[in-house]
Amino acid sequence: MSVLVELRGVSKHYRRADTGETVVAVEDVSLDVHQGEVLGVIGYSGAGKSTLVRLVNALELPSSGSVTVAGQELTAIPERDRRLARRRIGMIFQQFNLFRSRTIAGNVAYPLKVAGVTKEERDRRVAELLDFVGLLDRAYAYPEQLSGGQKQRVGIARALASNPELLLADEATSALDPETTSEVLALLRRVNRELGVTIIVITHEMDAVRQIADRVAVMEQGRVVEVGDVYDVFSKPKTGAAQRFVRTALHDRPSPETLLRLRDRHPGRLFTVQITDEAGLQNRIDAVFRSAGVSAELVYGGVGEIRERRIGSLTYELTGDGIDDAIASLRASGVTADEEAAA
């Protein structure tokens, strides 16, 4: 798969005007984005996500390092050429950034008008895009007449107006309710699959990454600390930051408060076993417990899907003399099984 975006050793430092202190927003990031994929970039507030996306479309230039998009090094060309390069990069924003005084059609047509596209071609393209996002019947409405989800659909249509190769979605669903978020993410996935547009999704919500991304990059304190296939990161997160995000999305492990309630009702030892898409895994776990003479009662957990592959965790109350042997057998076969420590 060819590389569309290439970051090499990218850093961005600011100097605070009031104190003269140097602020590190992004530090030594090297990252590839492949043609046709959806890459989720996740991190908590202040991790450097939004700065990174502004570096990708050259709205800001790095303090060091290089940014290359579609074979063109944006950090090595004049600003006039960077403006032209940005036409191949669409942007979707958290707060929609629609013109309140323009109709929905007028908002989508705006970048085409700026680019000098004829009115006839603008009208054709606007109708095509509004039909794609399901808002053709609202073409002459104004933004204030639309819901948040509809406004974001307009933002997506506008971002697609110039047929970009790359779409950057910066916290595009953060202002939306969960149901509307799922609808917008499904639309972005259609953009990727049907139009072939490469997408970078900037978010602090791991559930959004689970729904749409092929790969995920985890940021912490300005650095990319983990990159991988979204299923691999969910099933075997390597860093503490990734582990925290995965827990917020899967909701499959008991919280400390839940553990206290479980212990009141279940005096045995509590073990949480990770579930993957391995064929027959559940039957194998049950067989190990039976052969060791261990009684296993399921007391907590959840199993879902990522990219049509099963993932989750199940927490058991185990009783019997063969618990340690059973757990050792599971671990030896590659199954992750952790005892929930007493409070």
Automatic annotation (TrEMBL):
<dbReference type="InterPro" id="IPR045865">
    <property type="entry name" value="ACT-like_dom_sf"/>
</dbReference>
<keyword id="KW-0547">Nucleotide-binding</keyword>
<dbReference type="InterPro" id="IPR050086">
    <property type="entry name" value="MetN_ABC_transporter-like"/>
</dbReference>
<protein>
    <submittedName>
        <fullName>Methionine ABC transporter ATP-binding protein</fullName>
    </submittedName>
</protein>
<keyword id="KW-1003">Cell membrane</keyword>
<dbReference type="InterPro" id="IPR018449">
    <property type="entry name" value="NIL_domain"/>
</dbReference>
<keyword id="KW-0029">Amino-acid transport</keyword>
<feature type="domain" description="ABC transporter">
    <location>
        <begin position="5"/>
        <end position="246"/>
    </location>
</feature>
<dbReference type="Pfam" id="PF09383">
    <property type="entry name" value="NIL"/>
</dbReference>
<dbReference type="InterPro" id="IPR027417">
    <property type="entry name" value="P-loop_NTPase"/>
</dbReference>
<dbReference type="InterPro" id="IPR003439">
    <property type="entry name" value="ABC_transporter-like_ATP-bd"/>
</dbReference>
<dbReference type="InterPro" id="IPR017871">
    <property type="entry name" value="ABC_transporter-like_CS"/>
</dbReference>
<dbReference type="GO" id="GO:0005524">
    <property type="term" value="F:ATP binding"/>
</dbReference>
<keyword id="KW-0813">Transport</keyword>
<dbReference type="InterPro" id="IPR041701">
    <property type="entry name" value="MetN_ABC"/>
</dbReference>
<dbReference type="InterPro" id="IPR003593">
    <property type="entry name" value="AAA+_ATPase"/>
</dbReference>
<dbReference type="Pfam" id="PF00005">
    <property type="entry name" value="ABC_tran"/>
</dbReference>
<keyword id="KW-0472">Membrane</keyword>
<keyword id="KW-1278">Translocase</keyword>
<keyword id="KW-0067">ATP-binding</keyword>
